[in-house]
Amino acid sequence: MPQILRQFKEENASCVLRARTDKFSDVEMPQRQSLKAQARTDVRVFRDAHIIQIESILKIFYIFKDTLMGLIFGVEQMNETIERLNKLKKERNAVILAHIYQLPEIQDVADFVGDSLELSRKAAQTDADAIVFCGVHFMAETAAILSPDKKVLIPDVQAGCPMADMITAERLREFKKKYSGAKVVAYVNTSASVKAESDICCTSSNAVDIVKSVDAESIIFVPDRNLGAYVQKMSEKKMILWNGFCPTHNNIIFPEDILKLKREFPDAETLVHPECRPETLALADYALSTGGMCKRAAQSSNKDFIIATESGILYKLKKDNPSKNFYHASPLAVCPNMKKITLAKTIDVLLNMKNIVSVPDEIREKAYQPIVKMLKIA
Ligand code: SF4
């Protein structure tokens, strides 16, 4: 309560007390009348002061009413939604796999949260009848290739990957003709038909080991030129890079963002995803996949980390390491496709068993080999 209001209230309270106990009996009549009139005025002022107080509280409540109601009913609604989802999951014998870039509420309801490689392994191992894949389309397709007997559902069929769309099977076939003898390593961020044209797949966590394992004079690496350039440097292999990139990592995270944070937090470890530009990656203490970043943050004795990848990872990092500090290189680094997945859409696909991702058999059989080869190596 403000000081002035408290003082005002105390002063008037004594007047009310005086009026109530009629302490004016020993005072001369005219003076007594005037004091009683004063006391009545004081009572009115005292009452008004309380009204002002109540009004202020009501005003504050009114200003924040939406926030308060949202908090109260939002939590209730969220609990109901989660309950409904869990019930549906049981009924359908389904498992929810979510990528680290997913919204916090999706990560919270998922049975497993991981990077592309970890999710591929989970998809291959699960004995559930249905997999709800909370990620982008190529990830759900990879799960469908590995588990053809399971129903793989994606909450939003529009959740694609612009980098994966930068190459088609037809264009890869043409490219291969120019470099006969070269073997193709495809980043998992590709469609099933591109995988079907490749010798082996890789993810950002195993790309160096996979490329090193390929016995060939030269290697065509598709579609990410940044990851390809990094792998070329680390493996010292002759590589022909496709000119693709991730708009979120390539176009949003820049060296200046990292340099600014490094100046501010000179002791922080800098973890950069290899989908970033080479000049950004050059500032990294560690070039890591999202899964690699989570492991490093947990194992490192450092307290501060500069993180250069998509924003969704921050939620998991903070949740898993509450005593550590994570500074995002660019808060604008948000993949709009990853964020298309919502709880409502997840419930909808499970309820109606819709948005089933399937791959035609002739493509699936060809795409299966490079993925399984990758899983056996690293
Ligand atoms: S973050 Fe980049 S690579 Fe990942 S899904 Fe989005 S656009 Fe594709």
Describe the protein.
The chain is α/β, with parallel strands linked by helices. Among the domains are: 61 residues; 83 residues, NadA-like (Rossmann fold, 3-Layer(aba) Sandwich), CATH 3.40.50.10800; 79 residues, Rossmann fold (3-Layer(aba) Sandwich), CATH 3.40.50. The chain has 17 helices and twelve strands. Strands 2-1-3-4 form a four-stranded parallel β-sheet, with helices on both faces. The chain has a four-stranded parallel β-sheet with strand order 6-5-7-8. Strand 1, helix 4 and strand 2 form a beta-alpha-beta unit. The longest helix is centred in the first third of the chain and has 35 residues. The N terminus is likely disordered.
Write the layout of secondary structure elements.
Layout: H1 3-21, H2 29-63, H3 65-92, E1 94-99, H4 104-109, E2 112-114, H5 116-125, E3 130-134, H6 137-146, E4 151-153, H7 169-178, E5 183-187, H8 192-195, E6 200-202, H9 207-213, E7 219-222, H10 225-235, E8 239-241, H11 247-252, H12 255-264, E9 269-272, H13 278-281, E10 286-287, H14 290-299, E11 304-308, H15 313-320, E12 325-328, H16 343-352, H17 361-377
Parallel strand pairs: 1-2, 1-3, 3-4, 5-6, 5-7, 7-8, 9-10, 9-11, 11-12
Helix pairs in contact: 1-2, 3-16, 5-6, 6-17, 9-10, 14-15
The structure holds iron/sulfur cluster (SF4).
